[in-house]
Amino acid sequence: MKSLVFSAPNEGRVKISEEPLKIMNSYCQSKRTDAEAGGMLFGRFIIDSNDIVIDDLSVPMKGDIRKRTYFHRSVKNHQEVLNLVYEESSGTCHYVGEWHTHPENDPSPSDIDLKNWHRVMFMTITESNLFLFIIVGITRIRIWQGNKKLNQIIPLELLEKETMDI
Ligand SMILES: [Zn+2]
User: Fold this and answer.
1) Which of 91, 118, 129, 151 has the largest CB neighbor count within 10 A?
2) What phi-psi label fits residue 84: left (phi over 0), alpha (psi between -120 and 50 degrees) or beta?
3) CA of 123 to the centre of ligand 1 (A)
4) ∠ CA(1), CA(16), CA(165), 5° rounding?
5) Which candidate in 18, 36, 88, 162 is catalytic?
6) Distances from the Cα of 43 to the Cαs of 31, 36, 87, in angstroms?
7) Going by C-beta distance under 8 Å and a sequence separation of 6 or more, which residues neighbour residue 146?
8) Number of Cβ atoms within 10 Å of the Cβ of 24
9) CA of 37 relative to ligand 1 center, distance in Å
10) How many A from CA of 128 to the centre of ligand 1?
11) Considering only CA atoms, which of 154, 52, 150, 60 is closest in space to residue 109?
12) How far is the CA of 101 from the centre of ligand 1 (A)?
């Protein structure tokens, strides 16, 4: 599986690297009994550009609530993963957003998702005003970008042929 590149409205691009893509897809709810999964997204803000690269993520763990159409991420355990990733990357890998799965082919956010995403933007202090939100559907993965300053969440478009060498 290759990495995916999406276009952002600020003329930046968002790359999901191969490894996190592989991990997210392994939680795809293709069976009728599969529960939702999710976690934090970690990545890099590329200097002198609006580009963001997703390099890593946290996966479901103890303390999360996982149901067929519901996922709640524990705060503390995922935060510990973030701290570890941040340390191990010497402070280059940051929190960039959230991901979770949906038991539908082409996923779209529920009202609860949108509320959660706005709450995440409101509550989280990061280096950037930008946040990424991924939903992994059964046949398709989609990504939204939240802009804290504009209090806006918009879908990003997949650039089918684009690759990013970073
Ligand atoms: Zn959802």
Assistant:
1) 118
2) alpha
3) 19
4) 85
5) 36
6) 30, 23, 13
7) 97, 117, 118, 120, 121, 130, 131, 132, 133, 152, 153
8) 24
9) 10
10) 24
11) 154
12) 7
Amino acid identity, position 11: E
Q: DSSP strand E in the chain: where?
A: 4-7, 13-16, 38-45, 52-57, 65-67, 70-72, 94-101, 130-136, 141-147, 152-155, 157-158
Q: Which domains does the chain have, with CATH numbers?
A: 4-158 (3.40.140.10)
Q: Which two tokens stand for residue 42?
A: 């970690």
Q: How far is CA 34 from the centre of its chain?
A: 20
The tens place of each residue's pLDDT in the chain, 166 residues long, gives 689 999 988 778 999 999 999 999 999 999 999 999 999 999 999 988 889 999 999 999 999 999 999 999 999 999 999 999 999 999 999 999 999 999 999 999 999 999 999 999 999 988 788 999 999 999 999 999 999 999 999 999 999 887 887 7
